[in-house]
Amino acid sequence: MPESLSAPEVAHHALEHQHGAAGGLRADLIEIGEAILLAIVAVATAWSGYQTARWDGQQAHEYGLSNKYRAAENRAATRSGQQKIYDTTTFGFWLESKAQGNAEAAALFRRRFRPEYRRAFVAWIRLDPLHNPKAPAGPLLMPQYHNAAAAQSAAYSARATAAFSEGTTARERGEKYLRNTVLLATVLFLTALAQRFKLQGVRIGLLGVSAVLLVLALYYVATYPRT
User: Fold this and answer.
1) Residues 186/213, Cβ–Cβ less than 8 Å
2) What is the per-residue DSSP string for 74-97?
3) With 0-12 CB in 10 A as exposed, 13-18 as middle and 19+ as buried, what is 28?
């Protein structure tokens, strides 16, 4: 140090050196904070994208099952309708033969009854319907009548509805993760924008906003359902 410098000048140079060191340390801390922020954003974004893809796959699977069950429901409902037409037709022929006193034809049509229908028919006959006005109009109205195809159709309908509901839930959950990915992209943008500024106050302010949004995004990641 030159001997011509006075004591005040020496103190001034010391303060400048101290401020410069403090400013450099702050800049280093800001850069470290930015690096940590970007690393967390990268991991959270990858996880949100992964969960979005998983829930989208779950949605497609459930909707596929729903369509499969709907097709099975329609086939079973068609078969049930055909069976009811057959039961009604054979019963009509039996009733006509019975009314005409043709016991042989009546016995023939009775043998043509389906097993499910025959049980209801036997219970109906026990009520003496030809003389009992309180008896049901036909075996189809008896509690003993059971159509397996109709029950199968109802079961497929319930399964299709449940699968569609699960698919809708999966879609909604995937959309939540997708929105979270957009939030993380905002954090990434603000962090990159902060690096463009030389003023440390502006950088710190933008990093503060980014940190708040990141905490919110991480909260969503922690609380959203996972698959």
Assistant:
1) yes
2) HHHHHHHHHHHHHHHHHHHHHHHH
3) exposed
